[in-house]
Amino acid sequence: MQFYLFKTDDSGNRTYTPYDHAGYMDIAPLDKGENIRREVCLTLEQMGIMPESSHHEAGPGQNEIDFKYAHALPSADNTSTFISVVRTIAARNGLYADFSPKPISDKPGSALHIRMSVKAKNGEEVTDRAIAGILKNIADMTIFLNPTEKSFKRFNKMKAPKYITWSDKNRAQLIFATRTESGGRCLQLRSPDPNANPYLAFALMIYAAVDGIENNEPLPPSTDTQQQYLSSSEQNAAELLPDTLVRAQSAALNSDFIKRFIPESIIKAYCN
Q1: What's the confidence (pLDDT) of residue 225?
Q2: SS3 of residue 40 by DSSP
């Protein structure tokens, strides 16, 4: 999960002045967030949530912390706890932690990159069909992964996805497939942002993956070219993510997939 650290004023209110002006993977003294991230990681460890890596992201004052995998429900719990821990430690240090998807209009947005491993009980490799299922249903799911107006100001800017594509070579696609430590495969979905409800996001990813597996959904060809370098014909052939809140709401309202798994009251809350 990515987030920005902003300074606060003399009254403790947030400003939009970044805590530092470091860039991607910078280190101290440019990276002032290092001590904050260390305190977050140590606190998470004490709470039983195991961080795997942390670093400065591309935006000024932007940070990323990744934590170890778990089953879906504890992972959602960990995500919610993580946000509270970061906000608390930032405030204790006189800073404001911003988890919005696009806090500074001309700087990189913040993402919630979700990795998921899928394994059949008989050991069959089903990751390709799981990816195909998520690609098939991602437009209908988008409002629950990107629930605010600012969510759509992040898309198609500074490596944030625009097209419904996947790759096992290019990390900048909507879904990036990679190998796990055990030699299996996992997928990383890059469109969600930190405003997403992790319980809904993880559930929909699972339902979409199962849909692809059960229906033997064919995996489309991979897209290994950065989206800004796609030819006109490739751009025309690629399906687009919803690019506004209204279009994402419309996709969900007209989706049999969403109606099958999400209660009507929640659909109304997101799409009214």
Answers
A1: 83
A2: helix
